[in-house]
Protein: AraC family transcriptional regulator of arabinose operon
Organism: Paenibacillus methanolicus
Amino acid sequence: MSSVVLTCGYSYHTQRFHDHYSTGLPCYLFRLQTEGRCEADIAGRRVSLEAGDLLMLPPGTVYGLHVGEQNAADGSIASGDYYLLTVSEWLDDWWARAGKPLIARIDPDEKLLGLWRLMIAEKRRQTDDGGGTGSPELIDYLLRTLCLYLERAVTETAAPSAPPPFAVLRLKRFIEENATGRFKIDDAARHAGLSVSRAVHLFKEHVGRTMMDYATEVRLSAALERMKYTSFSLHQIAENCGFGEYSYFHKVFKQRYGTPPGVFRKRFRENESGTNLL
């Protein structure tokens, strides 16, 4: 059975707003606060929600939303959120696989918000007047991807040890997404809203390595994949994976794996299983 997205969208409230499910939600509710603040009643407990607070509520949860009861000092009301209500057999299985917190604090990065916007756009296509063109299959896969991405975001910020600040998570994701391009520490720090010195210190403190070391690991991982599964030359791989000159790539690869990239690739091609090479 494909997933059925009942409704999804983005809402921004500047006036008082209340929503109640006193007999319990009839479906799954996902709600991510992105701006301002509000309050929610969840299973008999009232909680304050600020940017980064995620609700993941299963069917049957008694739920209420209250916007405007916690006004700013000047009396203004502001609350923005992405929301999604859905039913899905896959979601039932996903929910049952491991316990999910009803509320969690995550980093609402652009990739996550981009997934949510894609879901909103595809749902709008499906419901447009005149016969929507939205694809139920695509909506099903977008929902699964969004749920798995949310689960990872929750796991990252709910580790048993003290979780790293959101800024560190943003730095890691920026490096992972940009290391094979023209990556600069200044750009990563700007993305996380930090000074360069603060970004360097926080990253080393919480990750245990420098940002450039982490970027090198990302580049090497990308290079390994290309060496195994593409016909790109080693010089092309060096350039495409952010190393620039092949001589530098050769040096870093050999230091990390103890063998030159050319020798590694030759061995891999001679061994179809690709195991026990490093």
